[in-house]
Design goal:
One of its GO terms (cellular component) is cytoplasm. GO terms for molecular function: guanyl-nucleotide exchange factor activity. InterPro entries: Ran_GTPase-activating (IPR051553), RCC1/BLIP-II (IPR009091), Reg_chr_condens (IPR000408). This protein has 405 residues and is mainly β. It has a single domain, classed as Regulator of chromosome condensation 1/beta-lactamase-inhibitor protein II (Methylamine Dehydrogenase, Chain H, 7 Propeller), CATH 2.130.10. Helix content is 4%, strand content 40%. The chain has 2 helices and 31 strands. Strand 29 and strand 30 form a beta hairpin. The radius of gyration is 20 Å and the shape is globular.
């Protein structure tokens, strides 16, 4: 992986951007064009999806609520604008809310209840922690974690934010504050697997938290017994990104060369190792070391319960693991090693719902596959599932303001 600098202009403010370019080359064969992945421009909840268009506006579709109660974000089951404003650079589909980062790193939040209540118009978000600028976000089970621009690592409970916002009067700032983890260590990426946080530090090391309890004081004070230290997970490489999510038993990570590492349950082959063996040291109650997985070089991956998706360094799209509802976008089989979904397009982003996937092409088109019971594939509700990638029905181009024209 190589890094390059560029400059973009949003809302009249010039900001310096860093984009990841991944190189793929096998000796004796011509190198394919590099793919530049777009992190944070598409995000998936259990049954809904949010994405940034080329103006940085937040669109969404699917069911963003209690699985037992229909809470459609879009009555047409097609993308619609969910939040006021433009120029957002990152968007996260949360359990009860949508979070977005603007070009300055400021954090904005819109409650899903407010979005449901205004199906015909975008919802006005409110700013969180205005004295902090953020680089990366992750959310799971109502816990939000963030890496600030200075590399510090924080987390907070979204229900505390929602409660404080409902109690406030006027435009006063809410009292909830994020809680720090491992002060003095600089981080570059973070994700949450249920109540367990995983983060990559600037030296390429991976760290995991104990369970983060959602029961704390609304004023952000320290929890009884709260630990500020994290457990180090050994790896044989310098890591750059980590991927995990609620109810997914596998944790995957990419190193600086695009190699895939991971640990966790492997019942359906979701680790992509070609078998169904649990990857952890014999006799260990928890994994203490990441293990190398696929030999292929990757640009990005996504995880979900029982399956994983990935974009190879050449921009092709792959999947492995469970495929009962065509979660992998292939018609037949449940491959325990990466299987090609599509090599005709240049793919730049991929996310997984609980029953399928959504991926973005370099020219701003979204495609979805798998289960569609809640309209999460954005096809207007024409099918209960798609066996292969099918277009999301919209005239909007996606990819965020930093996407190449």
């Amino acid at each position: 992986m190589r890094w390059g600098w560029g400059v973009a202009v949003a809302a009249g403010v010039a900001v310096t951007l860093m984009v990841a370019t991944h190189h793929s080359h096998v000796a004796g064969t011509p190198a394919k064009p590099d793919v530049t992945v777009l992190d944070g421009v598409v995000s998936a909840g259990a049954a809904y999806v949010v994405a940034l268009d080329r103006e940085g506006r937040v669109y969404g579709w699917g069911d963003g609520g209690d699985p037992n109660v229909a809470r459609k974000l879009s009555r047409s089951d097609r993308p619609r604008q969910l939040m006021d404003g433009a120029g957002y650079r990152t968007v996260i589909a949360g359990h009860d809310s949508v979070h977005a980062l603007d070009a300055s790193g400021r954090l904005w939040r819109a409650d899903l209840k407010s979005i449901w209540a205004s199906p015909g118009a975008p919802t006005a978000p409110f700013a969180l922690f205005p004295d902090r600028a953020w680089r990366r976000l992750g959310e799971s089970s109502g816990i939000v974690a963030g890496v600030a621009r200075d590399g510090s690592l924080w987390y907070w409970f979204d229900r505390d934010v929602a409660s404080a916002f409902e109690r406030r009067t006027g435009a006063e700032t809410i009292a909830v504050q994020p809680r720090p983890l491992m002060r003095g260590t600089r981080f570059v990426d973070v994700c949450l697997r249920g109540v367990y946080l995983h983060a990559v530090d600037e030296d390429g090391g991976l760290w995991r938290s104990d369970a983060l309890s959602p029961y704390g004081a609304d004023d952000g004070s320290a929890l009884q017994g709260e630990r500020s230290e994290l457990q180090h997970i050994d790896a044989s490489a310098r890591l750059e990104h980590v991927y995990c999510r609620e109810n997914a038993s596998q944790v995957l990570a990419l190193d600086s060369t695009g190699r895939l590492h991971g640990y966790g349950m492997n019942t359906f082959g979701e680790l992509g190792t070609g078998d169904a063996e649990y990857r952890r040291p014999p006799g260990a109650p928890q994994a203490t070391r990441l293990q190398p997985l696929s030999d292929k070089r990757w640009a990005a991956v996504a995880v979900a319960p029982g399956f994983s998706l990935g974009i190879a360094a050449d921009g092709s799209l792959w999947g492995w693991g469970r495929n009962n509802d065509h979660e992998l976008g292939i018609r037949h089989g449940e491959p325990k090693a990466p299987a090609l979904i599509d090599g005709a397009h240049q793919w730049v982003s991929v996310v997984a719902t609980y029953g399928g996937g959504i991926a973005l092409t370099a020219d701003g088109k979204l495609f979805g596959w798998g289960a569609n019971a809640s309209g999460e594939l954005g096809d207007g509700g024409v099918a209960s599932r798609h066996e292969e990638p099918a277009p999301v029905l919209t005239h909007t181009q996606f990819g965020g303001p930093d996407a190449h024209p």
